[in-house]
Amino acid sequence: MASKNDPFQFQEFDDDGSLLGANRDAVTISIDNDVIPERQKKPAGLYHVDEDEDFSGDDKTELLSGQRQNAPFWTFEYYQKFFDIETHHVKERIIGSLLPWPGKNFIQVYLRKNPDLYGPIWICITLVFAIAISGNLFNFLVHLGRPDYKYTPEFRKVSIAATAIFSYAWLVPLGLWGFLLWRSRKTLNLVSYSFMEILCVYGYSLSIYIPVVILWILPFEWLRWCSILVALCLSGSVLVITFLPAVRDDHPRVIVATMTTVVVLNLLLAVGCKAYFFSKSVEPDHSPAAAVVSVIKTTIST
Amino acid sequence: MAEEEASRPFAGLSDVSIPEDIPVEGDISVPMGANKRDDEYSTLDEPVKETILRDLRAVGNKFIHVLYPKRSSALLRDWDLWGPLLLCVTLALLLQGGAADSDDQGGPQFAEVFVVIWFGSIIITLNSKLLGGTISFFQSLCVLGYCILPLTVAMIVCRIVLVGGSGTVSFVVRLLVVTASFGWSTFASTAFLADSQPSNRKALVVYPVFLFYFIISWIILTFSPSH
């Protein structure tokens, strides 16, 4: 008859969580490297993130993503792992970039080690065509009623818009990633982002500009400036909240300079697009009524 | 004794003969079989008209499938790229002759229409495959190309309407025609493409198709002839 203290009796051990709870500094070694460290960080309290409602549903995707093979970058499979998302993920990420919340770091909350290329690519393409089409409509509405105006589709502007948007969305992340890599060599940083994650944040942060650009068709100049301001605040704060933890331990001047550069580049893009595609180039009106009006104006002013 | 046993397994086969009408695969020729092989000619020997008509019939058959899209796999099974090429060239040619006075800010050139259609189709196909679709590369190109047919028909109608004048009435008519054909194209292509994706990613595949046909519709709608 086996007794309780029989050494050969099978014993049940508790799972990792309660073992860890006894000793918070313990490290467990597991094969799924991407999953366990993240759960360890939660009790350590490094990140104050509200993950309760999203976490349970994404366990399976996290486990699967932790087992990605490392295919070389010239194969199809390498890029397939950046399209490992579902419709509701994309929706959540877009909403997360439209409504930034202090403390909710985009990369930590929404990307969670699963950056995707779907969002950046299709948001950039949509934005390019939104700018080209809205600019064309704006031009048409401004010149409506003038007898000498001949409508043109202005297809060349698509390539200009594409160059501007794609160089902002793909070259600036490259520069920022290189800069953060360089700074992290000098200061020990707990937070480091991969290139794909930075690319992802920049791509999703451009999504606010799509409705804004469509709004610019309306002929109210004050509306245009207000919407630029709102969009810049939202988009800029998403980027600032994301990148502040990455430079927080650095020299204060570097922090200020980095954040300012990020916001200023965003501002330049918005104002540049507005100035190039939506400028009211008022041509002299050739109708006789306007000529009479201008003559009267000049005689009154003298 | 050994020879008896050796011959016994095959004893029952001595009176079997191969009948003439069993179909034999491969290059096995039945010795007493029919000489049917001489009566069938390979496609090298048929008249040229037959060859061309066969391809034209296949293309026309697929056009009918696009015009009445039901869930059939005919488009997917025998894909070909003749139809998309024909439609693309027709659309690009119809969009010519519409430039404004200066070439600078005019409509798209022939090459630009080609690039938009083919490059756009390739990007959508790559997107669908990266998202894990089961459709093959050329099948997807075939479907996307054939579903441009309603938009080409709309372009023909627009050019006819524009001959009558380019005022507000003609614009409204053109808008209605282009909108209807855009809806038709998107509906037809998603009827063929959406089945190849798991249901939690269907919207991710349908949105680029929607954007693609929207851009082509925009190019068609903003076509303004130069007088």
TrEMBL record, chain A:
Domain Yip1, chain residue ranges per copy: 98-270
UniProt record similarity statement: Belongs to the YIP1 family.
Transmembrane as UniProt keyword: yes
GO biological process, one term: vesicle-mediated transport
InterPro entries reported in the protein's UniProt record: Yip1_dom, Yip5/YIPF1/YIPF2
Lineage of source species: Eukaryota, Metazoa, Chordata, Craniata, Vertebrata
Keyword Chaperone: no
Transmembrane segments: 117-138, 158-182, 194-216, 222-247, 254-277
Protein name as it appears in the record: Protein YIPF
Membrane topology reported for the UniProt record: Multi-pass membrane protein
GO molecular function: small GTPase binding
First-listed, main subcellular location of the protein, grouped into a coarse class: Golgi
Superkingdom of source: Eukaryota
GO cellular component: Golgi membrane
Compartments, as annotated in UniProt: Golgi apparatus membrane; Golgi apparatus, cis-Golgi network membrane
One Pfam family here: Yip1
UniProt KW keywords: Membrane, Transmembrane, Transmembrane helix
TrEMBL record, chain B:
GO cellular component, as recorded: Golgi membrane; trans-Golgi network
Recorded coiled-coil stretches: none
GO biological process, one term: endoplasmic reticulum to Golgi vesicle-mediated transport
The Yip1 domain, residue ranges: 66-219
Region (Disordered): 1-25
Record-linked InterPro entries: Yip1/4-like (IPR045231), Yip1_dom (IPR006977)
Stretches that traverse the bilayer: 79-98, 110-131, 143-165, 171-193, 205-224
This protein's record includes keyword Cytoplasm: no
Subcellular location: Golgi apparatus membrane; Membrane
Alphabetic keyword roster: Membrane, Transmembrane, Transmembrane helix
Primary location group: Golgi
Membrane topology of the entry: Multi-pass membrane protein
PANTHER family: GOLGI MEMBRANE PROTEIN YIP1 (PTHR21236), PROTEIN YIPF6 (PTHR21236:SF1)
Family (UniProt): Belongs to the YIP1 family.
Name recorded for this polypeptide: Protein YIPF
Organism: Cynoglossus semilaevis (Tongue sole)
